[in-house]
Structure prediction request, 924 residues.
Amino acid sequence: MATQSLPRENAISELSSFLGERLTTSIAVREQHGNGECGVYTPQPPDAVVFPCGTEEVSQIVRICTDHGVPMIPYGTGTSVEGNVTAPHGGICIDLSEMNEVVRVNEEDLDCTVQAGVTRKQLNQYLKDTGLFFPIDPGADASLGGMAATRASGTNAVRYGTLRENVLGLTAVLPDGKIIKTGGRARKSSAGYDLTRLLVGSEGTLGIITEVTLRLYGIPEAISAAMCSFPDLESAVNTVILTIQSGIPVARMELLDDVQMDACMRYSKLDYSRDHTILFEFHGTERGVQEQAKMVGEISRDLGGSDFRWAKTTEERNALWQSRHDVLYACFALRPGSMVWATDVCVPISRLAECLLETKRDIDENGLLAPIVGHAGDGNFHVGFVLEPGNEEELAMAKEVNDKMIERTLGMGGTCTGEHGIGVGKIGYMEAEHGESVEVMRMIKRSIDPQNLMNPGKIFAS
Amino acid sequence: MATQSLPRENAISELSSFLGERLTTSIAVREQHGNGECGVYTPQPPDAVVFPCGTEEVSQIVRICTDHGVPMIPYGTGTSVEGNVTAPHGGICIDLSEMNEVVRVNEEDLDCTVQAGVTRKQLNQYLKDTGLFFPIDPGADASLGGMAATRASGTNAVRYGTLRENVLGLTAVLPDGKIIKTGGRARKSSAGYDLTRLLVGSEGTLGIITEVTLRLYGIPEAISAAMCSFPDLESAVNTVILTIQSGIPVARMELLDDVQMDACMRYSKLDYSRDHTILFEFHGTERGVQEQAKMVGEISRDLGGSDFRWAKTTEERNALWQSRHDVLYACFALRPGSMVWATDVCVPISRLAECLLETKRDIDENGLLAPIVGHAGDGNFHVGFVLEPGNEEELAMAKEVNDKMIERTLGMGGTCTGEHGIGVGKIGYMEAEHGESVEVMRMIKRSIDPQNLMNPGKIFAS
Prediction:
């Protein structure tokens, strides 16, 4: 340790000399930054946290860290759940929250550029008089830089895609401090390697995203939301599958199992049914929305779904979605003092019922409390294990259920994470999912970050 | 040369021993493979052409070439236009046309896997009884492996995206012969680096794509096509811009200037207007299509467009699109014995009118014959310089107009190629477009292909 501490101390002192109060070694701040929103992974605080004001400053910070061989961990809002922001090797946490400026909005081109620390709600608030919006909504009010780094998605992705489809370009700082711009503002390009999409989802292991250029969309003429409950989970899942297979362009199609509905209704004090439920949202013209709702209504009715209960006003709609977004807090509330371990997988849509029902059976057989909620239209669902802190036996059972779920998912041609990233939590599944491709990822990592200073210990073991 | 010939001869003899007649050194075949569909770039034949039957065989071929340090050039249908398949350093052309099997169609998941040599028309023919289709249509009946390697798009991309958005996963052979699978069948994933999108658009410089997993779509309930002519180019372009800004989900919106329309009408012997024209196609429900057509009709009428002329039957629609797809041949026919140099750029939609009109002015001022046709909804357009072979002065003028167009495009935040790739033709613009990012691309290239054997001399100078 003694041999390691010197370069760190030197780096911190050098950083401190130009950042002043925008560098802190306070234990409370470091601890808060060494943790995400998941209680399962051991928090690992960095040695210091810095708050840069712009890309140039990030570049300076990175140069100093690289000169001293000190790890760097980029940080947005800390809402990731796979241990993506922990500092297993210590180092400098680069908190981008002060880089929160909307740099440019081109209404005519339906795009904008934001600094990495701008959150999705902040952006939509900024856009509110333009008639445009940014649809991707992972629930948490995450930063757009963090969402890009995690290849996040959430509700709405079924219609609008994920960050993969909605980032047009990036500014990033590489491990040598070089600032690069990737992509551009054209809607498509065949000019060279797609570095934008290499950085999207790289979880800070290749460089630090400092600005993001995003696609925007016109706010639809009509939006309507409805919920529909089902006597059993299978019918609900099959409604989702048939809707997708019919090509109906629903904007949101969220599935909540009975356990999750119960948790959400208790937490939000709403009085909807506690059965397995799908929340729908339709975007389009007045007529288009009616048409979509009619088609989906026929599918769900055929499968035993209830009548649609409509959220007619914006307020009702917001309350409905807020209750969906509060699933994590609703889970905590189910068992006071608990911790929640949220995991996610994504399968081809035809396998969703099988994957989900077998997982639910494993949960029940192990007597675990683990609501299921899914961006089901994408074939993506989350299991939120509600665990008693320190209960090793319960944690072991949850791990086993998670292992089996991922094994099942991979066997179905799915992925071990639809939208949470690998972080530290899913490193063990990379080989099983990607085989020899992992070595290619490592080659890229080594070529861009030869000292392994960029968020080390994430995506790959090290 | 003498020092180089030995390894090549050894490689060819080794390859020949297991490929037999599926290797040829015939001059005619080599010359045909050393050229694309553009007369401007000097054809550069490979030393031999091989016709592998499967991924394993490609891997064997690659191992042998790498052992002997011999370049490899993957080849689909040879329909690329930026010199993407020439062999400036000789080597082995790997023609994938015999790998033309549709491996798997999952109707329930709206996806399929094809070998790289399957062409888009072949795939759609194969799918014809399923109710599904693959929408991306670059005009030429290109191979899907080649389209992935070029990040191709074409008509329909305005609604369905490019190959970037529609490739779910790939099988590829790396320079060391290793076979990797990237991506998967889930609609989204946050699991590690996006190697799929790194290979899409890499033009064979990182590895050889041997299989492609693609998204499919349900054939829309209703399809209708119409054309609308305009008294001037500006009104036509502004119709495109307003349609996009209004968020109307048109499936195709192709712009042909008066020169191009005249060429197409002569060639196809159709009797539509020779004015600047937009060809529209609408996909959706019966009502949705009507609604879209009505909205677009209002925009175009306000801007001075003619009444829509509808292609009512499938036959009429096919004739209309065939005339669009025959632009290259129509250009040749404009000037017997000519060669056509097709170049493309893509700008943010708000700059399309300016970029296109200034380019047209340059063409006219130089007295060049160069029809313009565009996937205008994407901000993407092509200029087809119709040139007299051997006329150096004319070629120099065309190069100057192209240079100016690309400079203008980059100044507007656009890209030097929307869908044709860099090949050899656009290498000179890479630095201007990407700056320091080019060095990152080179780092990746070096790490994966340290001997620079994969399609050398493309994307990067070497």
